[in-house]
Amino acid sequence: MTENKNIPPSPNGIPDEDVVLRYLGNQIPNEEQQSFEASMEGDPFLEDAVEGLQAINQPDQIPLLLNDLRLNLNQQLNKKKLRKEKRKLKEQPILIIAIIMILAILILGYFMVRF
Fold it and tell me: What pLDDT, on the 0 to 100 scale, is given for residue 49?
């Protein structure tokens, strides 16, 4: 369906995006549908997601909406990552040399006054 899947299928029984879309399109076998509905009962987040997707008037637009959501999520995560990088203290050799020189002058001044 889409090449960029950010959320891989979970090993603990949570269905992936393809299963949800096939469920919404009534394209899965009965036994798989029953197991999907059982997992929906145990997971309120999945149940809310399916209800929200069922409320969309144009089911053929669901993959496009999911792709838009994925792009927005990536943009937000990248913005947070950039902000975090900006907050980090970058190595500035001039600043480090200046601090070392100031400390050396202070130490020399202390010894000159003391002795």
Answer: 86
Which residues, 6 or more positions from 37, have their beta carbon under 8 angstroms from its beta carbon? none
For residues 98 and 102, give the distance between their C-alpha atoms in angstroms, rounded to a whole number.
6
What whole-number distance in Å separates Cα of residue 53 and Cα of residue 83? Answer: 33
Residues found in the chain: 115
Give Cα 5 to chain centroid, integer Å. Answer: 12
At residue 3, the pLDDT reads: 46
Mean predicted confidence (pLDDT) in 14-41: 85
Structure tokens at 3: 């090449």
3-state secondary structure of 57: coil
- The closest alpha carbon to 59, from 21, 4, 5, 2, belongs to 21
Please check whether residue 56 is in contact with residue 62, taking contact to mean a CB–CB distance below 8 angstroms.
yes
Q: pTM, whole model, 2 decimals?
A: 0.53
